[in-house]
Predict the 3D structure of the following.
Amino acid sequence: MHKIFFFLFLILIYSCGESVDLLVHNAKIYTANETFDEATSFVVNDGIFIEVGDEGLKNKYNAKNIVDARGLSIIPGLIDAHCHFLQYGLESQQINLRGTKSFQEVIEKVKKYVYENNPKIVYGRYWDQNDWKSTDFPNKNELDKLFPDIPVILERVDGHAYLVNQKTLDISGINIETRVDGGTIVIEDGKLTGVLIDSPMNLVNKSLPPPSLEEKIKALVLAQEKSFQYGLTTVDDAGLSKENILLIDSLQKLDILNMRIYAMISNNSDDVNYFLNNGILKTDKLNVRSVKVYADGALGSRGAALIMPYTDMTNHKGKFITSVKSMDSLAKVLVKSDFQMNTHAIGDDANRSVLDIYNNVLIDKVDPRWRIEHSQIISPEDFDKFNSKIIPSVQPTHATSDMFWADERIGIDRLKNGGYAYKKLLDWSGTIALGTDFPVEEISPFHTFYAAVVRKNLNNLPLGGFQSENSLSRYDALKGMTLWAAHSNFEENEKGSIEAGKMADFVILDRDIMKVEENQIPLTKVVATILGGNIVYSNRF
């Protein structure tokens, strides 16, 4: 693509017309409104879109600042409907094991980190045994030999499994007799391997010191900077404690943190009850009106709850992290409030159970917008249980990350008939919300858009796309990252499209993602991110 020269002109106008802060013109504007109108100009005042239209707006308004977009495309501020914003910032300061090709490479990275940093605790993240020649879970033996005196915690890419050394097990009180509901402590030949799947991970979390206040503030600011760089103006953080939500609120009020955040409350009774008793917390930057629940674990670690056993692990169907009885009880509490229930469900058994609970309790509830996060493997007979009251919230890059091994877990038939079926989910629900699940996946929303539309990974594989019958149109993918994502957050009247009366959150791109060749989409760069009419990121001015 040829190099684009972009200039920002700040021109003080003394002509007649209504006085406004900003006029943007000569742009290719995708409004992402209900009818997906296009425009060339818009006007902003006090952080709000005043009017959207054509070049005639230049003669109608007296603008303090005028931007000639030189034909570049502009889209609404992007919304990541499912991510882990705080966790991303914290983990950016840990050992990055993404892309390692063997367990030995993991060991070498850990050794190098320990040598250079001399830490008291070693944290690493993003290993995936499916990328290794041997796809078996690793074992702690070598970690024990190398690091007998310091805790080592290495988290799998999906966040649903740890590999820890013996020192960590000892501190956490985990031994061969330990039993925890909702997960697995992996044992081989009568010995602990150091692999903990889902619920047992909490024993480690509780035994080690939490991040300090300073570390959390640093993490939030770091995550904000990276998000603005990629055109994100709202993020849905899928699981935050009351303590961290109130920290975010305080930092936003001090203008230390400006990212707009839709915060899902972690399913802890004290935290949930606090917000149920105090009601919805809503500001221009923060919205707290949902509870994040984990029905099951992840497919890659065989923690997803399946109706029939795993194809590559007979007599194993995965496990529920939260029991069906507990989810049903919580649903009956939340349905009496204005709080939304957002449940992580990967396996077909988890999705069936959550769909049945939702449909049962929501019969008399008007416009609840309860969400199923991931909606990854659905039994064919369960798709019609999605409807306008139940929104699938999906992460398209999961499909292109998992596609080369998912059939080993669940077999071709289950994968083909109900796996990563985004188009089918949209047809039944009427809307779909798109996210990345960062830091599980890369943060780029353009990778999300590409995976949703093209169904290929960044190596242009597979040819023809992965189960391409379930690809989304570019139109639907953009709405899933803007207007529909806002709708899933009860925020469609204030954001998600470029329309008069909404917050002036928008992104200027270096190419037109609605028209460029498919292989150009992942290369998209943000020229500028504007939040409430103010530039929060720019690589041009």
About this structure: The first helix runs from residue 85 to 91. Residues 529 and 537 are 5 Å apart (CA to CA).
